[in-house]
Backbone:
């Protein structure tokens, strides 16, 4: 199944169909349990840091010209899943996942664009467990007027969706 994320800036789309475990993103980070990291990443201090970083990213996006991947992306399924990814070259990224019960996941950090892919370098553990996580490496692809960020391990699924005619979708959401 292909999941499209619509970008509210520059009509871009992101497709993170597979969310997977990254492990500890910061080298030299002390070992800690997933439960401890979840409390840290959803703390008031972490939310405040992510909001400050989001403002810096949005300002950078407004000043950028012709960047193929920087933008503000979101995915909604209409059933309570609301995921947002805001990213830019200098100020990094902020990823948040909200649902019916509030904030499910939050992560932020820096971005490395090299060898044609966008790599998210996480402040907190990025693990798939229920409503958590995002692919740590995304491939920018332009298809017509749309911009996509495809997880590098899902490029074949995206290609098959293009060939099958299910992508580009006529509207946001699942296709």
Residues:
């Amino acid at each position: 199944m292909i999941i499209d994320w619509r970008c509210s800036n520059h009509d871009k789309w992101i497709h993170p169909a597979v969310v997977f475990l990254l492990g500890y993103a910061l080298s030299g980070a002390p070992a800690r349990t997933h439960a401890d990291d979840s409390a840290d990443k959803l703390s008031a201090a972490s939310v405040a840091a992510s909001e400050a970083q989001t403002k810096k990213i949005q300002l950078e996006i407004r000043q950028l010209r012709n960047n193929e991947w920087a933008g503000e992306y979101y995915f909604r399924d209409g059933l309570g899943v609301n995921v947002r990814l805001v990213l830019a070259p200098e100020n990094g990224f902020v990823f948040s996942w909200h649902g019916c019960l509030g904030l499910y996941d939050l992560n932020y950090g820096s971005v490395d664009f090299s060898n044609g892919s966008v790599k998210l370098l996480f402040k907190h553990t990025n693990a798939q467990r229920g409503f958590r996580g995002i692919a740590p490496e995304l491939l920018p692809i332009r298809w017509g007027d749309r911009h996509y960020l495809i997880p590098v391990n899902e490029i074949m699924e995206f290609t098959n969706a293009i060939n099958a005619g299910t992508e580009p979708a006529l509207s946001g959401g699942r296709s």
